[in-house]
Amino acid sequence: LRAARFAAEKHRHQRRKDADASPYINHPLGVATVLALDGGVVEETLLVAALLHDTVEDTETTLSELEEVFGATVRHLVEEVTDDTSLPKDRRKALQIEHAPLISPEAKLLKIADKICNVRDIAESPPADWSRERKNEYLEWTEKVVAGCRGVNPTLDVVYDATLAAARNKRDMEG
């Protein structure tokens, strides 16, 4: 709960890119929920890291601050899934694909839960300015990232596959 409050405070002025511009905190809460309810994850440090996974990348939060407040394990998990925002977007996306097979099993769980939530968002409420082509490219990219995370939690693998199939089906139905 401290992590949820911390994340809510850090993300308080941020909105998602969806058509409704929903509060950003909904995303980390969703990732933690996917881990707990869909993946059966009960490990506190992983659930805390899920709540905090975007704080370093998207706010002024530092890794040192996370370690001071939540410990070294949480810091390292968040660090494993944090993009280097000094790099161009295309390079960051390529690095996610390259690094996915190399991260810890816990970080892989966090990464796949994050992609499940993002794919759901693209299917249900995509950014208004995203073309069908951009949505397709995003779905294909998540598939490449998740390929490097598979095998740690078979249930999450199945949930991702079903989520991706539903997103593609919805896309096909909308033409």
Which descriptors apply to this entry?
175 residues, globular, 10 helices, mainly alpha
Quick structural summary:
The chain has helices spanning 2-10, 26-38, 44-52, 55-58, 63-70, 72-80, 89-99, 105-124, 132-147, 154-174.
What can you tell me about this protein's structure?
By secondary structure, this protein is mainly alpha-helical. Helix content is 69%, strand content 0%. It has helices at residues 2-10, 26-38, 44-52, 55-58, 63-70, 72-80, 89-99, 105-124, 132-147, 154-174. The relative contact order is 0.13.
- Overall 3D form: globular
Largest sheet: none
User: Ends: how far apart?
Assistant: 42 Å
Q: For the residues shown, what is the average pLDDT?
A: 95
Tell how many strands the DSSP assignment holds: 0
Helices and strands, in N-to-C order?
Answer: HHHHHHHHHH
Poorly predicted runs are none
Number of helices: 10
Instruction: Please indicate the percent range of residues in DSSP E strands (runs of 2 or more).
Output: under 5%
The Cα radius of gyration reads 15 Å
Classification by helices and strands: mainly alpha
Estimate the helix proportion, in percent.
55-70%
Topology overview:
Elements: H1 2-10, H2 26-38, H3 44-52, H4 55-58, H5 63-70, H6 72-80, H7 89-99, H8 105-124, H9 132-147, H10 154-174
